[in-house]
Write a structure and sequence with these properties.
This protein is of the alpha+beta class and 295 residues long. The protein is built from eight helices and 19 strands.
Length: 295
């Protein structure tokens, strides 16, 4: 192969300066020379034009699925399913067409309630014992909502769950897209727990936590399992990505141990440092950016 092979063509040819053909609009491809129709994949969502197409132009209109997401109902993908199912109304009319746009004056209802778009809020809670991780409890038990009464005016939802007797890091938000991403198994948000057991655990059983334990709903594995520094052999640190119901407690129970105390110390890189039990704080802009960029 000659040294010239593989070189880029001269700039004039690359830019079209030596051609009478007008430059093509960025992000599109021309179908043929007779129609000159601009067809193709459309603008990239990461470009300015792509964001305008996805989020709305300067007329204040946005796609209905984004409106539902901004209102904290669901992620945009899940919102599309709700729209197609016919459970969303706009100005009293059921809307099932994807891509429908709404404006500030439109009345959007879901689940019998009128929705409003809200500023996205992200609140970190150091959950104490005896609080249920839900927005409402039919048995009138205390829920985590009581812990953030004065955090903001927007209605927030817990990201994932901590059972009643588990303490530690819990994220609350009205950002449906982020909540979906952090709880989806494919993204695997890191969780680190500190567990105190009813008796000392053997090193062999620590290894079993990592190699995997077969539970009724499938194999459960920790990424790491070790004794807590400075603690006894009843105290174990556990790192995992899965978020199945009571999975940590069930893993230990399958090995013959009872979890006396369980505390989540890390969730998706967020810690409870300087946050007393039962208190909350808003995430910093840096923390929100970190979560949004997670793959």
């Amino acid at each position: 192969m000659s040294k010239r092979a593989g070189r880029r063509p001269p700039k004039a040819l690359r830019t079209g300066a030596a051609s009478d053909t007008p430059p093509r609009e960025r992000g599109w491809r021309e179908r043929d020379g007779s129609t000159k129709r601009q067809v193709g994949r459309g603008p990239d969502r990461t470009s300015r034009r792509g964001r305008q197409a996805e989020e709305g132009s300067g007329d204040g209109l946005i796609r209905l699925n984004r409106y539902l997401s901004n209102a904290g109902v669901a992620s945009r993908r899940e919102a599309d399913k709700l729209i197609v199912a016919g459970v969303v109304t706009v100005n009293g009319q059921v809307v099932t067409e994807l891509g429908t746009k709404v404006g500030p004056g439109d009345r959007v209802h879901f689940g019998g309630q009128r929705l409003t778009t809200e500023t996205k809020r992200y609140v970190l809670v150091n959950k104490p014992k005896d609080f249920i991780t839900t927005t409402d409890d039919p048995h009138d038990r205390r829920t985590v909502m009581a812990l953030i009464d004065d955090a903001c005016s927007e209605r927030l939802y817990p990201v994932g769950r901590l059972d009643r007797n588990t303490t530690g890091v819990l994220l609350m938000t009205n950002d449906g897209d982020l909540a979906k991403k952090l709880t989806h198994p494919s993204h695997g948000a890191e969780k680190i727990y500190a567990a105190t057991l009813d008796k000392a655990i053997t090193r062999a059983d620590l290894e079993k936590l990592v190699t995997g334990i077969e539970l009724e709903d499938g194999l459960a594995q920790a990424i790491e399992a070790s004794f807590v520094d400075g603690g006894t052999k009843k105290e174990v640190g556990l790192k995992l990505h899965m978020g199945r119901n009571r999975v940590v407690r069930r893993m230990f129970e399958a090995l013959g141990y009872e979890v006396v105390k369980l505390d989540r110390v890390v969730f998706a890189g967020l810690t409870k440092k300087d946050l007393p039990r039962g208190k909350w704080r808003h995430l910093t802009e840096k923390e929100v950016l970190f979560l949004s960029k997670r793959k």
